[in-house]
Structure formats: C-alpha cells, structure tokens
Amino acid sequence: MKRYCDTCRQYCDEEAMFCPTCGQYTVATEVERIAPEGDVIYPFAHYQMSYKDTFLYVMGKKFMDTDGRASRREFFQFIFLWNVVIICILAVFCALTAIFKTGPYLLGLAWMIISILGLVSFVPMVALCVRRLHDTGKGSDTLLLFFVPFVGPLIALGLLSKKGQPQDNQYGSALQHIVIDKRLASIMKVSPTSSSLTTKVLIAVIVSALCVSGLSMRYMAPSDKTISMGWFANAVVGEGSEEAAEASVKEYFNAVNNKDYDKAFTYVIDQAKANPTEKQKWIESMKKAPKVDVVSLGVSQVSRVGNLKRITFEANLQMTKPSEGAVEATHTKRYISVIEENGAWHIEGFYKDDPNDK
After folding, report:
1. By its UniProt entry, which InterPro entries does this protein fall under (predicted)?
2. Hey, how many other C-beta atoms are within 10 angstroms of the C-beta on 55?
3. Which tens digit of pLDDT belongs to each residue from 153-174?
C-alpha cells in the first residue's frame, strides 16, 4: 500500500500521513510499489492476468484471503482452467484404461486424484467467490444461496457473473483491468495478458479431451452396446465378460429346455457341484421348470472384489407351460447373479428381487 499526494502528484510511503514535500494530507491508495522504471505497480487483482498467473494467484497468494475484490475475468479464468485440468485427467486415465485394459483401477485412481484436487481447491475457490461478490458490492453471506434448493444456486451464479462496480466500495478500490504487455510483464515477473488465442486453444483442448474420453468409453464397451453400462461392465470385470456371462445364462436355459440337465448343471457355480444335496436341489428345480425363453438381459450391477467378479442381470423371461389343453405363456422378471470361476461364468442364483438391494 502507498499514500498519494494530490498536490505534488506523487506517491509516499504507507506511514507518511502528510506529504514530505508540501506537507499536504495524503490519501491511502492500492499501490504495492513503484518500479525502478517509474511504473506504478498495483495489486494483482487490478491486472488482466494470464491463465497461469491467475491460477497461481488464486491457489497461492489468495489461498484463504477473502479481502479485496476479484474481477469477472479472474473468476472465469480460474474456473475454466480448473475444469480443463479435471477433464484432461479424466481423458488421460480413460485412454490408459482402454489401451491397457486395467479394469476399474486406473479410473478409481483418477477419481481419487480429482477428489484430492477438489478438496485442495475448495477453500481458494470459496475465497475467490467472496472476492467476486465484493466486486459487485455483495457480502460473503450471499454464498448461502447455494444452499437454497433449485433456484438458489442459479441466483448465486448470476450474481457471481455480474459486472463489478466501477467505483470504490466498502471492500476496496475499483478494479482497473490493466493489460499486461511484455514490458510490464518483465517488470512484474509475470506472463503477459492471455490473448483470445489462448482461450481458443484451451477450448480445443477441452473438446479433444472429451472426444478422447468418449472414444475410450466406446472402445471399452461391447460392440453392440451404446449405453454407459456397457463400457462400465468392461472396465470393472474385463472386456468380453458381459457377453460371456450372457452366453452362459442363455446356454443354461437352452439345456434345461432340452432336458439336458447334466449340461445345464455345468453352468452352475462350483460350490453347488461339490455338494450332492445342492446338486439334487438344482436338478429337481430344472425338472419342474417350464420352458423359458430369454427375451432380454440387462446388467443391473457389476462388482469385483479381489479375483471375484460378479454380474447381476435383470432378465425379462417368457415362461411357457401347458395349461388345460392350451399353451400358456407369461412374461416375468428375474434377477440372475453370475460369477466367474476359473475363467468361466457360472450362475450363482435366481432372485425375484434385486439381491443388491438387500
């Protein structure tokens, strides 16, 4: 901070209440220093900083500082660059997962990194929002609007996007929005003001990262799946697992319909095969079962704990059985749990309700 003498039109030290030249009263002003070249250096908030310097300023010098004001440029540059970083992290880890087929581990690591970044940047982001509100003449209590359901966050974002007051207010002097050219950048030891080209390049980076993420997810998914569950299943239990599990379920029902119970039993979990009582129960249930046609199989949940991989299908089945000289066909829904054992997918059980809800 410096003090300014209107009579002599010169800056004095912060302690000089009166001008040492003319003795007139001086006024406090937001000036950090006078450069040897004669340039008046204001606090960073008065400059149109580059993306890099904005990020370092918010995350460093202003980490927990809510004093003063912040321009719309500073606010949007930081938010924009933060999103660029997050999207690029996701794109890189999605691509690595698709290339190396690592299952959920790299995606889990990506979300852990993003969570850490979110926690670290939470405090400086709140401080930035407070300074942005100061620039519009609003206090920090305006942020409480984020806790109002539905309309509250929209109103708060609108106020954060509002143009700052052109005059001084209770939170500080009016921001001057000074452009940093190369000469001034060398004096201040910062980068020149970011051009519109830099913004366009960052937008292109975001678009490219989103394309990489989309292609990676599509590559991880089965060829006949377009919904997100397809790539998610492949990411968790491995590529081709969903199709193999579906094939086991369908082969089981085909064998039961053809009364080939020994073959059908090969698609049952090993635990049941090793237990004569369990085996007898399965065989009896097969013999009593009506003819079943699989209409559709949809993944309800996938999980992986160590080497144990499990897929729960939501199955739409058509059950056909003779009834008083006619054939009665009914549609029913069942949940089928399938686990991988020694490289093969075996049926663990059939359920009326989703077993994952229990």
Report:
1. DUF805
2. 20
3. 999 999 999 999 999 899 988 9
> 32: which residues sit within 8 A by CB, 6+ positions away?
1, 2, 41, 42, 43
3-state secondary structure of 234: helix
What is the torsional sign of CA 253, 259, 261, 262? negative
Q: Which amino acid is at 197?
A: L
Number of residues assigned to the chain: 358
**Residue 23 burial (C-beta neighbours within 10 Å; 0-12, 13-18, 19+):** exposed
Query: Are the C-beta atoms of residues 171 and 138 closer than 8 Å to each other?
Result: no
Q: By CB neighbour count within 10 A (0-12 exposed, 13-18 middle, 19+ buried), where does 268 fall?
A: buried
Q: CA-CA distance, 264 to 258, in Å (whole number)?
A: 9
Q: In the numeric block, which tokens belong to residue 143?
A: 């942020």
Q: What are the C-alpha distances in Å from 238 to residues 100, 213, 235, 319?
A: 11, 18, 6, 32
Full-model pTM = 0.67
C-alpha pair distances (Å), 88 with each of 81, 98, 161:
11, 15, 25
With a CB cutoff of 8 Å and minimum separation 6, the contacts of 37 are: 187
The long-range contacts involving 25-29, CB below 8 angstroms and separated by at least 24 positions, are 27/3, 28/1, 28/2, 28/3, 28/4, 29/1, 29/2, 29/3, 29/4, 29/173
| Type of residue found at 277 | T
Which residues lie closer than 8 Å to 337 by C-beta, 6 or more apart? Answer: 310, 311, 312, 313, 347, 348, 349, 351, 355
The pLDDT tens digits for 49-69 are 999 999 999 999 999 999 999
Cβ density class 280-291: b for 16+ within 10 Å, e for less: eebeeebeeebe
